Amino acid sequence: xxxxxxxxxxxxxxxxxxxxxxxxxxxRDHGGVIFIDLRDREGLVxxxxxxxxxxxxxxxxxxxxxxxxxVVGLVRARPAGTENANLVSGxxxxxxxxxxVLNPSVTPPFQIDDDNLSETTRLTHRVLDLRRPxxxxxxxxxxxxxxxxxxxxxxxxxxxxxxxxxxxSTPEGARD
Length: 176
Prior knowledge:
By secondary structure, the protein is an alpha+beta fold. The protein folds into 2 domains: 6-103, CATH 2.40.50.140; 119-158. It is built from 4 helices and 5 strands; from the N terminus they run βββαββααα. The two termini are 37 Å apart.
C-alpha cells in the first residue's frame, strides 16, 4: 500500500509517484489550491491539491485536521523561495493525483504540535497526546531500549516468557 513514509520523501524521489498514508496535520486553502501537511511517524510532507482533478479536489475541500488519509501523487521540487529547511521533505512537495479519506475525525480539542498543554488535557485525550512528536520520540526510545535488552538476553540464552500466558483466568478477572 504505502511506498514510503511522509518524513522520508526527499529530493531523491523527485519525478516518482508515491503512495503515502498519515494524518492531516494542517490544511490551507489558498483560493483554488489546497495545501495539506501530511504527518506520520517519520515526519511531514506538503501535499498540493490542484483543482484540475475535480473528484480529488472535492475530497480535499472536506479534509480537516487529524483526518487519516491515503495520498497518491508525484514528487516534484518546490518552487524557488518556498523551501522549508527544517524538514527532510522541505525541498519537495507531492502533487496529489488521488486522495482518499481512510477515516474522518472530529475537530481535536487541541493542536497536536501544541507544547503548552496541561497535564489534565493530555491525559484526558491520551490517544491524541501519543501522536505528539515528543511522545512519539519517547515511545521509539522505549522500543529501542527494550529491543536491545531482549537481544542481549537472547544472546546469553535467556528465553522471554510472558507469565500471564501461563496462568488460568479467574472468573472475577481480578488476577488477570
